[in-house]
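Incident log, structure service

09:12 report received: a user says their structure output differs between two submissions of the same chain.
09:20 pulled the input from the user's history:
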Amino acid sequence: MNVFIKRGLQITAVLATAILVCLSVGGMYLTYPGTPGKSSFMTFEGYVVLPKHGLLNVLDYLTLDGKALFVTSESTGSLFKIDLNADRPSSSHVTEMPGAGAAHGIALFREANIAFLTRSEENMVQVFDPRTLQQFQAIAVADDADAIVYAPSAKLVYVANGDAKLATLIDPETRSTVGTIPLPGKPEFVAQDPKTDLLYQNLEDIDSLAAIDLGKRTIVGRWPLAPCEGPTGMVIDPSLRRLFAVCSGNAMLVVFDLDLHRVVTSLKIGGGPDSVAFDPILHRIYSAGGAGKLTVIQQDSSDAYRVLDEIRTHYGAHTLAVDPVSHKVYVGYASLIAHPRIAVFSPTK
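09:34 re-ran on a clean worker, output below:
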């Protein structure tokens, strides 16, 4: 055999072997969650394993209601209710409400023991009992229903419709739509300021923030979030008058002054950030992103922040919630072949 041909075949064989090894390692990483990375600031307590349907399971919003954690599935349309076991997370009881169309946000209307769930592919909001998961009815809304919140001061449920670039308003008593609010961009997430009762809506495609007065049913202010690109999750610190927004386009968290209406500082965080949560007692901000990092940020003052740690989680672990009482952090894992799960962390210092 020609020596050059032989050498070429050897090189090809080595390259093929390397590719197979890389694919195997990558496949194992994507399918097997393993244990999160070590941290000096957070302790991993275990997983709450959820039912799986098909090969791919992508979780979306995590919503805490006392000792219950509601988890929506974007890929299957299911809603999971986890009755949390504080001492042994893996022993928590899980019930499931199946459904059609991607499931996203949840708004709780505790006065009547009902809840509202957005389904973007079905263009509707589903009404259900949060205690039993019994389904009542479906309310038709505009395209791409995603974020949702109940505003007690206005006694309205607010639904952000992404593709339609508007918000749908629902009367929770009559369970019917009562109006819409046009938006100048594509809404992604919404946060309510308990001091002013204004809703703050980010506009993902124009990197902006809008303030909405539900009593007047109109936008009362709009400001840029630069240097933020592609704002996604948001949360408010009402005490220090700060809004925290994570930015999927450039892996950043920006801090927005709610009184001066401007960004006061920004930090680099883990890639593909999608959700953010704030612990007002510990003054900690947590962000989760698709790149598989849980970023832990300390708030030293209203305008001073520092990244304490970036904990390795799992690719696609992009959604989270924090319990302000126990201070536990819950991170939702997407899954390929394996079961989807919720990782539970507690602060150590």
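09:41 both user submissions now match this output. Likely a transient worker issue. Closing.
09:42 reviewer note: The mean pLDDT is 92. The CA atoms of residues 133 and 261 lie 40 Å apart.
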